[in-house]
Amino acid sequence: MIYVTVATARAAPRGPPSTVAPEQGFTMTVQFIEITEDVADRLHVLTTPTACQVGDARMIIVDLLGSGPSWPLSVLVDQVCTAYEAPDGERLMVDLREGMAEDDLRDEPALRHVTWVRATRLALKELTDSGEVVWSLPSDDPDEVDHPEVEVLMSGAEPRAFRVYVGDPLPDGSVSLR
Questions:
Q1: Which of 8, 114, 125, 144 suits a disulfide with 47, CB 3.0-4.6 Å?
Q2: Dihedral sign computed on CA atoms, order 58, 172, 82, 90
Q3: pLDDT by position in tens, the chain (length 178)
């Protein structure tokens, strides 16, 4: 078993609610679990963005890049996810092994977040391949480091999570319009 300590602002703190302000977040230990191949395949299908979603993410990225000199990858991902009400930190509230309809599962907040992360990454890849954006050399800013995996927190008494691969690695650094 792998245990990792993560910071989050979404999970409920243990103890009296007044001990930690929600906007401050807190640290908790999470057990990472492995998912089966069939669950991983189903998760991949459920979180594959449509062409329309990739286009929507692209529109937000270009708009953001037009408003400033450059933006770190993690900030662009966060802005797109926020715009489509798919914030990080939502817990997966369903069992992916059960026979729920795919449309219902796609509306699950944790899966919606993964979908919009993938849409943003695909849009950035398209913009990079077409030469519409350039990447700066990375600095010491942790927001400029690419992590092609997303951690999905699961509901339950014990904090557990699994990692989802969300696409080919992108360059480290900040992005700007050409």
A1: 114
A2: positive
A3: 333 333 333 333 333 332 333 344 556 677 888 888 888 888 899 999 999 999 999 999 999 999 988 999 999 999 999 999 999 888 888 877 666 777 778 888 999 999 999 999 999 999 999 999 999 988 888 888 888 999 888 887 787 888 989 989 999 889 999 8
